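Chapter review: from sequence to fold.
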Amino acid sequence: MSFAPADTYPFPPADEPTARLRPVRERRVPRLAAALGCLVLGIGLIGGGAAGIALSGEDGAVTAAQRYEDAAGLWHNLPVDELFPTTVKGGGAGPGGADRTWTRIGVAPDSGCAEAFDPLLAKALAPVGCLRLLRATYTDATRSQVTTVGLLFTKGDAEAMRALRGRFTEEGLGRRADLMPRTYPVEGTVAGEFGSAQRASWTVSVLTDAPVVVYAVSGFADGRKVFAPQSAAEAVAEGAETTPAQAGLGHDAKGLADRLERSLRTEAGSGPEDD
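The token string follows.
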């Protein structure tokens, strides 16, 4: 918008008759000055904000990189009760949308990954390395089912984690029974007999906004052997009629892993990942 100069509309001379009224235009010099002042101020603020972002390194890419780096230290920066809460609520996480509640019955000492995984799973995870492995075992409200949840903090950068996730997705590695995670039995509890033969359902989630692999594996608390384990993705599918599906063990594995993953991502300052 342009403004006419102020002298375009002069006031009538003092000696001119005033019987004939002339339109008096409002003077626009103050408005023009104010508008220019706001424009200059706005440009200054925008420029200053851009400079601040450049100086502080807070553009999207840098923030994501910093968050990724910070997430790598969560295994020793967060208390165990935040990584593995004593009680986890699973609203709608059970079969048919039933609510679930899981209670922690044991936490393994943090460790490396030697002997932590079956050979084929260890080989699949090898490209991202192992920084630290944290595990805890939970039971459901009936104390008839148990689930081990693991947080594998890797040495991989974001590109390596994306490559690993791509491989798990494209090759369906998360559904292969020979790539099931191992359990963490807790002596003297309902999970005392929770060994490899008792594994019934499992899930493995490779994050890309944090150097973490989240997994869970579930089974029965009475020590019974499971001869046909089924991945959680298949066990929670509508119409699934296998033993793990009917018992809700797929829901236990998926429900616990999802909630601990969500909590970890919140602590890392990340939002939900795109599938």
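Two observations follow directly from the output. The two ends are 48 Å apart (CA to CA). The longest helix spans residues 29-56.
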